[in-house]
């Protein structure tokens, strides 16, 4: 078996998320169908980070394992490398129906200890949000939710900085059975771009389910004056202490969220990083 890394992006509007679901169009099912078509074998993908329905990705990463027979069928009689053949043919089958909502950026052969999910050091996301001050670009409205009033970005920035660090993000996560909600949030920055659209950038070792959109929702509550600046950090402190605050999450619309990048260590550290990631996280 030979392992390949596939770098791709997608517009999530018409997908029911990343993960395969019976009878629904998802990114994973579309990608794996394309891989099966060009290799004539079932191919399973492992992704860096699953995205929900409607969420987009500029730079997502997956890995696949192909047997020698599958690679030979892929290359055929051409003199191309396996990477070049996989890149070209996968791009071809994914646009055969005239759609372009999955884009393959690059394909590379990687060591067998590379794991798209567990070898990752961090993921970054960006959320775009327009309020009353923002210029509404008609070309970007499909990926920019609107807030009716004007938000206090300075207050949101202060609250965002206080929420960074190693915490139990249970107040801002939909927990999965048997999984921890402890994460390290390296960056949480709020700004306005040149058209006064609010951009919220996040970088963490990993994100639990709904974590990004719930954190953005909390910052919107701060920016609108519904919550004091200190409230997000207080909720995290309570969770860190094992106190269930039982505050309902405000999860923002999916179409404003984009996975922007996934970071990895040097190749010699793939295995050790994967082992570290798979170990259950604690705060101590």
UniProtKB/TrEMBL annotation:
InterPro entries linked: PsdUridine_synth_cat_dom_sf, PsdUridine_synth_TruA, PsdUridine_synth_TruA_a/b_dom, PsdUridine_synth_TruA_C, TruA/RsuA/RluB/E/F_N
Catalytic activity: uridine(38/39/40) in tRNA = pseudouridine(38/39/40) in tRNA
Superkingdom, taxonomy of origin: Bacteria
Single Gene Ontology MF annotation: RNA binding
Catalytic residues in the record: 52
Quaternary structure and partners: Homodimer.
Function: Formation of pseudouridine at positions 38, 39 and 40 in the anticodon stem and loop of transfer RNAs.
Family matches, as NCBIfam families: hisT_truA
Name of the protein in question: tRNA pseudouridine synthase A
Organism: Brevibacterium sandarakinum
């Amino acid at each position: 078996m030979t392992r390949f890394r596939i770098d791709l992006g997608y517009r999530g509007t018409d997908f029911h998320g990343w993960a395969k679901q019976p009878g629904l169009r998802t990114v994973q099912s579309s990608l794996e169908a394309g891989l099966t078509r060009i290799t004539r074998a079932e191919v399973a993908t492992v992704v860096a980070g699953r995205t929900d329905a409607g969420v987009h990705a500029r730079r997502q990463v997956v890995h696949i394992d192909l047997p020698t027979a599958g690679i030979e069928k892929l290359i055929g009689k051409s003199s191309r490398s396996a990477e070049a053949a996989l890149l070209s043919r996968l791009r071809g089958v994914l646009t055969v129906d005239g759609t372009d909502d999955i884009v393959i950026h690059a394909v590379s052969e990687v060591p067998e200890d590379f794991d798209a999910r567990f070898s990752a050091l961090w993921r970054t996301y960006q959320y775009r949000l327009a309020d009353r001050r923002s210029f509404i670009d008609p070309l970007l409205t499909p990926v920019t939710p609107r807030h009716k009033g004007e938000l206090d970005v300075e207050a949101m920035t202060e609250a965002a900085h206080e929420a960074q660090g190693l915490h139990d993000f249970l107040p801002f996560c939909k927990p999965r059975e048997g999984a921890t909600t402890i994460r390290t949030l390296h960056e949480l920055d709020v700004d306005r771009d040149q058209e006064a659209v609010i951009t919220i950038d996040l970088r963490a070792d990993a994100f639990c389910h709904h974590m990004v959109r719930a954190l953005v929702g909390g910052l919107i509550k701060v920016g609108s004056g519904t919550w004091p600046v200190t409230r997000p950090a207080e909720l995290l402190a309570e969770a860190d202490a094992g106190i269930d605050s039982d505050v309902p999450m405000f999860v923002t619309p999916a179409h404003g969220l984009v996975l922007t990048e996934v970071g990895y260590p040097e190749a010699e550290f793939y295995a050790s990083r994967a082992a570290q990631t798979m170990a259950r996280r604690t705060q101590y």
